[in-house]
Design goal:
It is built from 8 helices and 12 strands. It has helices at about 15-45, 45-55, 100-110, 155-160, 180-185, 190-195, 210-215, 285-290, and strands at about 70, 80, 90-95, 115-120, 130-135, 140, 145, 150-155, 170-175, 195-205, 220-230, 245-250.
Length: about 290
């Protein structure tokens, strides 16, 4: 065996082999560390890198105790929830309804709870026979304000408190055309902790704060489902197949992760626009992250 620099030739062969092994492992680890630094720089400093990092963070886990069920419309407007984990919900919030709210109606009828609906752009109030819907002509936002047109915006914390729901178990759906990012970024952890399940349609893929929001939510929730909206399919947001996407978050105090099972795309997911081609994709996720998530 050739000599190892700095190791006398009189050292036994086994020890020399161990030294060689240490040298090789050190070089490999240095290479892995360098690659990780390069990858992190790519994540931070390029649009495609930020999208890749965001998409990796959005990959679902398998929940051993989740039975998915669709609530709301059969296509656009419908969202998947873990139906068997809704028994403790005491009140529900439906943000961004645009004059219709099949999701809120299904939730109210099936769970026998009041659903607070919020929209300040479309003031048409949905009708739901057998359900208890309360419409608020107001939008959700990061801070309370009133715009030049007189539209009122407030935080989830303020709205929940005014409705007497502070400290109660909540179910929340949000589709607010981009306002979700700053709303969640500024929402207190205590408010997020009240939410048993959170169904959100996110809009956008490129901004650095988007990953901050998802990582904040993941401190409280597991990602249980990811579905891309085929109204927004676009090659320009690769590796995302679309710039709008629906995510189901389940609170960690009720969800149980099955780390031995690979997440499966649920057939209950349906194209938002049934007359167009769909654009779902399975993202590449590092094996180490899959194991340790």
């Amino acid at each position: 065996m050739p000599g190892v620099p700095g190791v006398p030739r009189g050292v036994p062969g086994v020890l020399r082999a161990i030294v060689w092994l240490v040298v090789v492992v050190t070089i490999l680890l240095a290479g892995v560390g360098y690659a990780a630094v390069r990858r992190d720089r790519w994540y931070r400093n390029t649009a495609e890198g930020r999208r890749q990092a965001l998409l990796e963070d959005l990959q679902p886990v398998t929940l051993a105790n989740c039975e998915l069920k669709r609530f709301g419309e059969p296509n656009d407007g419908g969202y998947l929830l873990c139906a068997n984990l809704l028994t403790d919900v005491q009140s529900a919030y439906s943000y961004g309804i645009s004059g219709y709210d099949g999701w809120g109606c299904d939730v109210s009828r099936q769970l026998k709870v009041k659903v607070h609906e919020y929209d300040c752009f479309n003031l048409q109030q949905p009708v739901c026979g057998g359900g208890a819907l309360m419409f608020h002509p107001e939008c959700v936002a990061a801070v309370r304000s009133t715009d030049a047109a007189g539209r009122v915006f407030d935080t989830p914390e303020g709205q929940i408190a005014r409705n007497g729901d502070a400290g109660r178990h909540l179910l929340v759906k949000m589709d607010v055309e981009g306002a979700e990012w700053d709303t969640f970024l500024n929402a207190p952890e205590s408010v997020l902790g009240q939410v048993d399940q959170l169904a959100v349609e996110f809009h956008g893929t490129n901004q650095p704060r988007f990953r901050d929001v998802i990582r904040k939510l993941q401190r409280t929730f597991y990602v249980a489902n990811l579905h891309f909206n085929n109204y927004s399919c676009a090659l320009t947001v690769f590796p995302f197949p679309a710039w709008a996407y629906e995510v189901l978050f389940v609170n960690k105090r009720i969800g149980i992760v099955d780390r031995g099972a690979r997440p499966q795309f649920s057939p209950l997911n349906a194209p938002n626009k049934p007359t167009d081609d769909d654009c779902q994709s399975i993202a590449w996720v590092p094996v180490v992250r899959t194991i340790t998530h």
